[in-house]
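Usage

Read records sequentially. Each one opens with the input sequence:
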Amino acid sequence: MGRVVGDFQLVIAKKFVAAGAGSLSMLLTSGCVNNCSRSQSEYDPGSQVILESRIQNALNDIGRSTFFLKVAAEYVPFLSSNLEEPSEGEPTPKSDDNKVSVSGTAFAYYRDENFTYLITAAHVVSPPPFRMDENLNLQRLKSESVQLSLADNQLDKDESDDIVLELIKTYEDVDISIIRAKNFLHVSTAYDALETNKLRAGEEVYVPGFPYGMTRFVSTGKIGSMDGVPHFKAQKFSCPILLAAETAPGHSGSPVFVRRGDRLYFAGIVLGLRDYITFVTGKSCLDSEIPVLGKGR
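and closes with the structure output:
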């Protein structure tokens, strides 16, 4: 009788051990050994939805401070004898031949009691002093002909509701210009700022702007390099940030924001692009001249 009881206890013990081993195997394959409920909560889909919602709300608010910038200018024939306007009887180009229009993006970053201040790329608001027309005739920029304004997009032909802008200052060494409007425009506070030397390759970026002058559009990508371009001597490419982002002509002047968690950080201004590489001047090169830029919150 005692042996039967002992054999029975041994069988029960073996089954218990087998069950325990099976449970341990299941825990190991599930990747959960200690405090499974807490581990699962860390991957709660609801938390991810909240995070993405915060980013989306910030981007929407920043978008309200991002504008289509239209620049119109007029050129006249370049005269070898003087730089005056053509005299009566001298040939003048057709009206369509001597007018140019370019576009870019402007970002409203500050507002006082009288004006809203915006930043953009200097080359957008500064047409070249000379150009060749379609017949290869040399032309010069007509004095006081440059007009800056905010419009809906490149297709907006109704100028009655355009917002007139004034060029305040240009920083040629970093290809940046400050413009202002008498209108009270929205100035977003849905972001913070990061110094250029704190950025890292591979970080996610957002670039709101007006590609091809069509519509407000948020391009995405990553920081491709913080090392600049070796042996590139251009002074206008200071505090360089190179992006691998889906930008296009019309993004010049766009702000760049780096994402970290559920926060966006102002990082710089788009200067130009080549293929899939976007060139950006980092915030640190703008601080000394424009201290309120990128303050956000």
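Summary fields computed downstream for this record:
- The domain at 188-285 is CATH 2.40.10.10 (Thrombin, subunit H).
- Residues 8-41, 80-84 have pLDDT under 50 and may be disordered.
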